[in-house]
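Chapter review: from sequence to fold.
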Amino acid sequence: MRAVYYDRQGPADQVLQLGELPDPEPGPGDVRVRLRYSGISPGDTKKRAGYFGSAMTYPRVVPHSDGSGTIDQVGAGVDRSRIGERVWVYNAQSYRPFGTAADYTVVPEATAVQLPDSVDERLGACLGIPGITAHRAVFADGPVAGRTVLVQGALGAVGSLAAQLAAWGGATVITTVRRHTDLTALSGPAAERAVALDHPDAQQAIRQHAPHGVERIIEVAFSDNISLDTAVAANGAVIAAYATRDPQPRIDFWPMLFDNLTIRLLGSDDFPSDARIAAARDLTNAARDGHLTVPIGNPFALHEAAAAHDQVDRDNRQRVLLDLHA
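The token string follows.
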């Protein structure tokens, strides 16, 4: 099969290679997916670059955890009726060496989720890391129906899906963007109650939508926004953070204590299996029912993987895919 892989970490154009690797075979409980699209997330490019001082766990890595395609083989113990099923894939390269930047990937059958006929394979390839992270951020502390949810960074891949999932779950959704010029880029539930963080009084602007405080906060920039989060949080609120600019953020302990705030930190590779399964179910249902949209750029061909990685690292607002048929 054709595959993009790396044997050492570094810049994309220096370490990513395109070559032929043996076709993988599914083991017991596995399925093999002939891929149409491979979804690239910032976590994929950070692993490749050695971000956070991470080392390679395997001598060779085929990157990317997300993708979509069709099951063409199954291992022992898997119902053969799944052969020919359209699926979206998550966690393909989570604690595993070979992800979706290839013609085929082999994954445990639970992480190949049936894709409804009405859902485009490009959208399916975008649901994995950002979708499951967004779902966990919104729902890890229970249903949100009737609650007020603040989504910081609603133009990002996770933030956009979090806003849509929170609205799908019955919440009143407030969103933020960094600059007032970004407000026009919002759409759907994310655009209904939006605040720009360069507003002269962002705290008051958020409070106008939530006079009694916000009960759930989805946070993409913990170190930058924690003071604002604390100021707009209701007593007993949860701040669910999946990223930060400063890895050693400062917090104002006593106001957070007196408001009984909970800080939930989200590492997507290690979510509980039941949480991932619930997220996959809900994401599929929401996509089937037309409640999820994702801005997707023109897919790159497999041989353009380095350029695709660079596009992700430029903080692109559109999801970046590889088209395995191009």
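Two observations follow directly from the output. The first strand starts at residue 2 and ends at 5. The chain has two domains: 2-126+294-323, 130-269.
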